[in-house]
Structures are given as structure tokens and as C-alpha cells.
Amino acid sequence: MRIVDANIILRYLLDDDPQLAAKATAILEQGTVHAPFEVLAEVVYVMQGVYAVPRTEISSTLRQFIELANITTDNTPVLAEALQIYAERGLDFVDAILCAYHRIDGHEIETFDKKLKKSLVNSFDLLWVREAESRYAEIETDDVICRPIDEAVRDARGKLK
Predict the structure, then answer these.
(1) CA distance 51 to 44
(2) Which has the least CB within 10 A, 91, 114, 121, 152?
(3) Distance from C-alpha of 122 to C-alpha of 143, rounded to nearest angstrom
């Protein structure tokens, strides 16, 4: 497996250095390459922080990039969802990835981050909380109170997987 780093992807996407962009294009066109989440997080960070590219443009550009036939990622559906969340909700990209893992794969996310907790709640209008000893335990997140999952929500969750 060939893994590309952020600089290859950035030169390819930004085309800010014609010589390096040409080399990056050649590398990306020479068969399958893997772009791990860690690398893509750096790409997002640089595009946003250094080049001041708007979130929506970063999201759409990277979504197109990961749809290329020769690009693989750790989990493309989660990454695509994370890019959408990143564009729409104003979360940091890593937090958007966590929300996407929750939404797409149903993972429970443990965090002290209030903004992330609120986004997790809003990602399905519920937070899949770990069942406590008591069915009536409550977890407070800013203005939202989530109770352990009842039977109807449990059924809905099963249909989403």
C-alpha cells in the first residue's frame, strides 16, 4: 500500500507550485494510494489556517478527491459524512470525524467537549448513551437532556445500521 502525505494532496489540490503539482499528480495517478484520516486532517488544517479556504470549499474539494477511483481512505462513508458536518456545523475537523463515527457506525463518543456533545445529540436528535445501572439516569449537555435509550429508539437504531 502506498500512503500519501498532506503535501502531496495539497500540491495536487491547490496547484500553487506548478512543478510540485505536476509531481503530485504523477504520484496520485500511478495506481492506488491511501489517504489516512490523520493526513486528511492536516490537509484541512492547512487549507483552512494557511490558505484561508472556506469550509464549504474544503469539504466539496476533499469529497471530490476521495471519490477518485484510485484513492482509498480508512472509512470513506465516515470521512464523507465528517466533511459534510465540518462544512455545516463549524466543528473542528477531528470533532466532525467523531460525529461521523457516531452517526454512520453508531459508535458511542465519550467527551467533555460541550460543543461536540451538542453536535452528537443533534446528529440524530439523540445521543446514544451507554445504559447506566438506572434506566432513568440523565446526562446533561448544555440545553439538552438525554435519557438512556428506550425501546423505540433502540429499534430505530437497529434499522439505521
Answers:
(1) 10
(2) 152
(3) 12
Query: Which amino acid, 69?
Result: A
Confidence of residue 54 (pLDDT cuts 50, 70, 90): very high
Record the pTM.
0.73
Cell numbers for 116: 461536540
CA distances from 48 to 41, 59, 75, 106 (A): 11, 11, 22, 28
> What are the tens digits of pLDDT across the range 82-141?
999 999 988 999 999 999 999 888 888 888 888 888 877 765 433 333 333 333 344 444
Cβ neighbours around 161 below 10 Å, total: 7
**42 close to 6: Cβ distance less than 8 angstroms:** yes
129 in Cβ contact with 146 (< 8 Å): yes
